Structures are given as C-alpha cells and as structure tokens.
Amino acid sequence: MLKRIQSLLEEVENLQASNAEELETLRIKYLSKKGALSALMADFRDVPSEQKKEIGIRINELKTRAFDKINALRAQLESTDSDTEVEGLDITRTPYPIELGSRHPLSIVKNEIIDIFSRLGFSLAEGPEVEDDWHVFGAMNFAENHPARDMQDTFFIESHPDVILRTHTSSVQSRVMEHTQPPIRIICPGRVYRNEAISARAHCFFHQVEGLYVNKDVSFTDLKQVLLLFAREMFGEDTQIRLRPSYFPFTEPSAEMDISCHLCGGKGCSFCKGTGWVEILGCGMVHPSVLELNGIDSKIYKGFAFGMGVERITNLKYQVKDLRMFSENDKRFLEEFTAAN
Ligand code: PHE
Predict the structure, then answer these.
(1) At what angle do helices 20-31 and 49-87 cross, to 10 degrees?
(2) Could you tell me how far CA 220 lies from the centroid of its own chain?
(3) From CA 50, how far away is CA 54, in angstroms rounded?
(4) Beta strand ranges found along the chain (DSSP E)
(5) Which end of the chain is more exposed for a tag (fewer CB within 10 A), N or C?
(6) Mutate to test the pocket of ligand 1, among 227, 246, 250, 304 (most ligand atoms within 8 A of CB)
C-alpha cells in the first residue's frame, strides 16, 4: 500500500495538461469517485489497524498534493488563455465604427478670415487670454477711470485687480508693438471674455480677429480698400461696404463697417431688419497716443486697425440663430458643418 501511495505521489507531481480537456481527464483519473484516490480509500478499510495511522497520513498527503497540482495546472491554463487573448487584441484601440469629427464652425470661419488676410501679407500674432490691465486698456489709450472702460464689461480677479481676462485681442497688438518697429502687419485671432448674461444673443466669451497695419504713409483709403477686399472674399463679389462714424479710444477717426445684406442682396429682409445692411466690424486709424504708448514714433508712422467677432461673421454666413450653440458641443449641430471643412 505504501508503495502504491508513493508511486501515485510521483505521478501526481509530474502531471501536465496543455488544455482544459486534458486537465479534466486528469481530474477524473485521480480525484473523481471512480478515480485513484477513491480506490485507495476503499482499500484503506482493509488496512490492519496498527498501520492505519501511518498510511492514513500518507493518503492525506497524496490527496492534498493531487488537489494542489490539479488547481495549479488549472490556474496556469487560465492565465495562458487570457495571455493569448490579449496578444491579438489592442484594448486601447478605438471601437468601430470610428467616427470622424468635424472642424468647429468657428474654426472654419476663423481660418477663412486668417487665410484672406494672410494673402494680403498679414502675419499671425497671438497672446495670452489672462492679461494685465496695461495691455488691454492702458496701452490702448483707455485713461484711468475713463468711462470707455465700461464699454467692455470686464472680468476682474478680486485679489489681483491688475489681472483680467482680455476683453478684446487689441492686447496682442500692444504686445507686438512694444517689441517691434514698423512695418507691422498682423492679425490677432483669439478668445475674449466679457461679463455678460448668457443668452441667444450674448455670451460671456466669444472670438475675435483683430488686424493692425503700421507703416509710413498709411491712410484711411488703405483701410477701406483692405476691408472691401475682405468683405468680397468672405461674402461674395457683389458685396458692398458702408462705413459709419463711431468711437473707440484707440482709433481716430473710428468707424463701424456694414456690408450689404447678402441674404436679400440689399433689398431689405427680416435678417437685416429691412435696412439692407448688416454690421460686421469696428475699425479706424490708430490713435497717435496708442503708437506713442507702445514705443512707436507717431510723427513718422501711421496705422489702421480693425476688429471683428468670429461668431458674428459665422452667423452671417450660416444663420446660426442662437450663440449658445457654438459652445454646447451638440453633435447634431457640429455635424452640419462637415461639408464646409
Ligand atoms: N477692440 C475693438 C472691440 O473689441 C474692436 C476694434 C479693433 C475696433 C480695432 C477698432 C479698431 O470692440
């Protein structure tokens, strides 16, 4: 009996299984009711009582080893199983079907504006959205406590009154002028912030593209021609422009520009409120004080500047009725612009 136990022990230690079926065969062979261990237990009854203790201990040992071995083989099979599964499977891969995103309508229009002005020789300039009072207001000729600061509802940071969210990208014009001498010909696209209640017609942030040209002998005629060309490139060859006098602290003279309503061709419709014209931007000749405040000699140089809202231009092109659509990330809205990419 002891010999039988010893040879079974050796057999058990050397068991191998390369798949679940083989393992099951082994389990049946050794551990089932008709298996080797049960047969041993049956014969154990006939063992003389003085040997029962020793043989009992050896059978128990065999039983434990056999269970342990079969369990170890099972664990080994399971782990290699999942290894082979992972090998052929990239769990970081995007699930099918892969959905292609589309460019945001504001980016489409912003890129179009940039493209038109870059063909006219304007280069791109960018700056920080979190700004200081100087670059947003001081350097743009907004005097301390000047009521014009109220024109742009500013977000301040209570503990740091000098730190603000820029209300226009004119701050980038200042940042370029303070370290560059003319000729300067830049466009400054970017996000700006104003403390306004959010509605279909206003938002607390929006996007602008501002332009600046500083050189010797720059005139209002140059401004007008550049803007006419822009309007025709953007809205079609038949587009007319109209300049109305306006006020900005950083330009003198200042104007607001309308384009002929491209929906009704200038005849008057609900979109242009029957006037035939829609406003698209602010502009003017750079105020001599702005040049001086930014280290440029206003006796030698002149400049023009303009600024437009990207949302406004996008609305004119695509008739988006509610400004909030631009920031809600509603896929149904965004997918409408796929073809415009
Ligand atoms: N900075 C002005 C605004 O945000 C726009 C503007 C730029 C007007 C340049 C005139 C000249 O309203």
Answers:
(1) 170
(2) 39
(3) 8
(4) 123-124, 130-132, 156-157, 160-165, 184-193, 205-215, 241-248, 251-260, 277-286, 302-309
(5) C
(6) 250
**Would you give the DSSP letter of residue 100?**
P
Q: Are 262 and 235 in contact (CB under 8 A)?
A: yes
Residue 284 alpha carbon to ligand 1 centre in Å: 9
The predicted model scores a pTM of 0.72
Minimal-distance CA residue to ligand 1 atom 8:
282
**Under a CB-based contact definition with an 8 Å cutoff, are residues 259 and 241 in contact?**
yes
Distance 170 CA to ligand 1 centre (A): 7
Residue 31: CB atoms within 10 A of its CB come to 15
Ligand 1 atom with least separation from CA of 210:
7
Nearest to 234, CA basis, from 114, 72, 88, 86: 114
Q: How far is the CA of 232 from the centre of ligand 1 (A)?
A: 21
Nearest-angstrom CA–CA distance, 329 and 104: 9
Q: Give the length of the chain.
A: 341
